[in-house]
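STRUCTURE:
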């Protein structure tokens, strides 16, 4: 149910006149919220039925996308600042809800306020909302239990920053090559559909035998002209089938294994996932979450099913009483040097601090791998597309050169 703006007139606890507006679902909730603020309402004016929040209405109808990492990060930092300043959690949430611009996040915060107002803890209220991951809620729970919620929220914001930074690096590295590839394919298609047929008509007028290279290009051009209408929906259907297969457990496992074996890209996938795993585990352990629960949350946050399977084996070994170093050492793609660093951290009792250093190493190596991939893929695409276009042009002009010779 969407929140509405109610007008109220009443008296505060010190006897002064109080009036203003408040967002609530109904009059009963208005009274409850005003009582919490120490205001005794004498008059409550319901909003006009036509006066609705369009953003909230669109969210409720599923017409707006949920909030992203950027909005969540901003909310986390602001809540940490308010709590650190001594503002009660409920009041802090109400302040953030009032100033929030994103309709999806605004709706979530208002629902969290309602649940906290009923007596539920912050992490329980957050776990009922979409967009707050198991990792997020577990860390908030640990912060509430230890009385260091503001510190934990700051750690969460740093963690979200790091994850978003890696995603942006990979996205920006793939943007330019993708644009070049699409343009190149479009140019090649244009050559085959519009340019090659013009040459074919010229060659037919000459009535001379064409070289096999030229004939190959002509055959490809005829094929594309005849089957383009069928090729587009075929690729579309194939894409849908492939995506649905990847969504299955077996398909996701096969896809993740294949991606890990692709040159250069596989290195980025592995190091990026390991950076996420070590950073998450460090954050959880630093917040006082038990290692078994931390490993469970790490498995949930990882998007790579093969790594999830390997981490499950690590968790089972730890449950049996073994150190985390031994099962990690059996994972082929986990570097030996990093494993030794984890061993040192475990033996000295500073595993969370050592894992932070390991995460820094992985993130730096991921950045270097992304930069390397960018340097390699751009000239590769240009050479391939240039070769295709050059091959087509040579094939078309070759009969003319032969006739002139």
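SEQUENCE:
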């Amino acid at each position: 149910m969407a929140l509405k703006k109610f007008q109220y007139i009443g008296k505060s606890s010190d006897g002064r006149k109080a009036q203003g507006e408040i967002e609530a679902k109904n009059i009963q909730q208005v009274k409850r919220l005003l009582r919490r603020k120490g205001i005794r309402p004498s008059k409550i004016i319901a909003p006009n039925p036509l006066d609705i929040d369009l953003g909230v209405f669109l969210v409720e109808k599923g017409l707006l996308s949920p909030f992203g990492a950027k909005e969540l990060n901003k909310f986390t930092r602001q809540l940490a600042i308010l709590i650190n300043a001594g503002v009660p959690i409920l009041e802090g949430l109400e302040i953030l809800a009032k100033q929030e611009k994103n309709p999806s996040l605004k709706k979530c915060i208002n629902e969290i306020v309602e649940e906290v107002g009923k007596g539920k803890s912050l992490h329980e209220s957050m776990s009922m909302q979409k967009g707050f991951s198991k990792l997020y809620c577990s860390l908030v729970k640990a912060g509430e239990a230890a009385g260091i919620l503001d510190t934990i929220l700051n750690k969460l914001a740093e963690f979200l920053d790091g994850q978003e930074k890696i995603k942006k690096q990979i996205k920006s590295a793939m943007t330019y090559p993708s644009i070049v590839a699409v343009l190149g394919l479009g140019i090649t298609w244009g050559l085959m559909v519009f340019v090659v047929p013009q040459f074919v008509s010229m060659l037919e007028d000459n009535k001379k035998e064409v070289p096999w290279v030229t004939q190959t290009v002509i055959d490809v051009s005829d094929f594309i002209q005849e089957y383009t209408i069928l090729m587009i929906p075929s690729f579309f259907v194939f894409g849908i089938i492939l995506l649905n297969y990847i969504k299955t457990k077996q398909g996701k496992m096969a896809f993740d294994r294949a991606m890990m074996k692709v040159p250069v890209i596989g290195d980025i996938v592995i190091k990026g996932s390991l950076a996420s795993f070590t950073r998450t585990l460090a954050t959880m352990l630093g917040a006082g979450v038990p290692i078994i629960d931390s490993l469970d949350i790490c498995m949930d946050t990882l998007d790579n099913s093969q790594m999830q399977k390997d981490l499950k084996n690590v968790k089972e070994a730890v449950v049996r009483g073994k150190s985390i170093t031994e099962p990690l050492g059996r994972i082929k793609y986990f570097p030996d040097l990093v494993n030794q660093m984890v061993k040192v951290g475990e033996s000295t009792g500073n595993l969370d601090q050592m894992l932070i250093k390991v995460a820094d190493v992985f993130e730096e190596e991921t950045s270097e791998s992304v930069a390397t991939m960018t340097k390699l893929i751009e000239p590769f695409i240009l050479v391939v597309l240039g070769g295709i276009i050059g091959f087509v042009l040579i094939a078309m002009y070759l009969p003319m050169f032969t006739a002139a010779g």
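REMARK: The domain at 164-405 is CATH 1.20.81.30 (Receptor-associated Protein).
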